[in-house]
Specification:
Length: 276
Amino acid sequence: MQVLGVAGPSDAGRTALVGRLVGRLGERGRVATVKRLRDEPELDTGRRDTARHRGAGADVTYGIADDGWFATGCERTLDETLADLAPAHDYVVVEGDSRADVPTVALGGRDHAGETVAAAPDADAVDLDSVVAALEEREPFETLGSLVAEVERSPDAQYAGAIATFTGRVRTQEDPEDEPTELLEFEKYEGVAEQRMDTLREELEARDGVHEVRLHHRTGVVEAGEGIVFVVVLAGHRREAFRTVEDGIDRLKDEVPLFKKEVTVEDTFWSHERPE
């Protein structure tokens, strides 16, 4: 799933630009939107009970009516929202969150945390074609759930009796005496990493009984406890699935050029420079 932010003042046509982007991206796949609200949203639309539920301590409330549904929650992060959307969507456009570390179209000179895809004084000056082309070049937002959903949509899914997965995560400590790891940061050898990942996937999918394989390794900062790398295999039977998952992660670690920096509570170092 590709994620795009739109940051800038509302009088620069921010919401109108989101609408145009949704229309253009909707020609290529399924699109969701997320909008950051500056203040707690007004919940009283004839449903006062939701405010009472929140006041009693509920983190999330859902309202269901004949004309639709809504949900509210003050402790939800953008990453959690994106993770929920990823299995069923190809694109998400995030409006009005300058703090989001996502590829961003910046209007009116607005500062923002993510990489700049385009900058313009207002929405009318944004070239949609160049924005969409630049977005497709960025690394997608993937989760284990989104990769599983993708293989489940395979035309060969009717022949598959197994989906096996592997998730590699940031381990905080190997034992209680270890210095805790706060985060890892990954960089890839641009071009070469993607080529080797594609080759590995093709070779794994060529095995008898294996229908689909998905491999994804995150880059950038990954916090302690978060997933780093995912392998998903759709196969006819469990044995082929398990063996292919194991071979997939072993070969990915051996063959795909990725560089890891570890940040602990007391030190920072690249893995190949780890102090003895």
